[in-house]
Amino acid sequence: MSWLTRTALLAAVLHITPTVILVTRPEAVTRLTPGADAFFAREVHLSDADAHRLHTAVDWSPDDGVLTFYTAKRAGSPVGAFVFVRVDTPHGPLEVAVGFDAAGAVRRVEVTKATVETKPWVLEALRAGLTDAYAGLRPGSGTAPGGARAVRANVGALPAYMAQEVDKGVARALAAYGGFYK
Amino acid sequence: MLYELRRADLRVRFLVTCLLATFGVSYLFGGWMVALYAGFTPAGVAQTYAGAGMAMHMPPDSTVVVEHPMTMAGFAESDVHQVDLNLLVQDTHVHVPMYGVIAGVLSLVALGLVLPKGWLLGLITLLFAAPWLDFAGMWLTKLVSRDFAFVTVLGGWAMGLGYTIVAIVAIRQMWFFKKGALE
Prior knowledge:
The complex is a heterodimer. Chain A is α+β, with helices and mostly antiparallel strands. Chain A has helices at residues 3-14, 25-32, 48-58, 119-127, 147-151, 157-180, and strands at residues 19-21, 38-45, 66-74, 77-89, 92-101, 106-115.
């Protein structure tokens, strides 16, 4: 096979399709922290040592070394926090929004972005109840996110694969929140 | 003259026409996609590739926390499609080889056109320079300054111009030259 054909095939196989928004950020914010009337961005600029610690824990470093958490309040009292985490997959990026309640447990998870190619797989996993499996998880509890395990029997191979990637996003959010939110 | 498309067998001319039509459809949808994500203005490209930038210099030895209020409008702005460094590396790795193949194929079509040598060299340069400008602009916007976004816009238009010139001249020479004029 000529180099030209090989290059063309490689490019076709690896082509990343554009990002699509599954849930807009304002909509995700409303779902993750219902009733909140004020929001604050908490940007944690990680030192080299902390960035290394996070990377060792979940094999991930946030963009530009900055973790951005959002705190939600109602009438001045905290109602929870949330974080948007990107997961790069071979089929393009996913964005997972993970919301925590005031006690620090996962309240809800939303998949906010996928790609044209992965959208149907993600939607199939979501219809099978993927995000229900994350509610109540706590950072440092030792329980790994088990969304993929919960839906595997009811979805195809690619939706199950995307569910694993969403698990990865939730695991990153748990590690980030547990280690650096306070 | 390596070969002349206008004298080529009907089957070859049909093949080249199909190829140009397919590329044309692909470029139209490419333009649509650009309109959906980065837009055609330097400001849109800068927002996509440069990102918001660092709010402060990151101290090397200690973690620093900065807090500020957020509005719903602020969250909505975050929905703008942004390409960070990792994605740009991936995009460059994936797209540049394909752009090279397309520029190569269009150059092969151009070699079969009856044009002065200087024009042909210029056209081939344009076909290959376009993707280089496109990605150089993205990288310069990401790493040096948002002001370089115009280079990507320039690359995009150059890509469209190169294809348009090859397609128009090729179709004209292959299908609209009178047989008698060749003798």
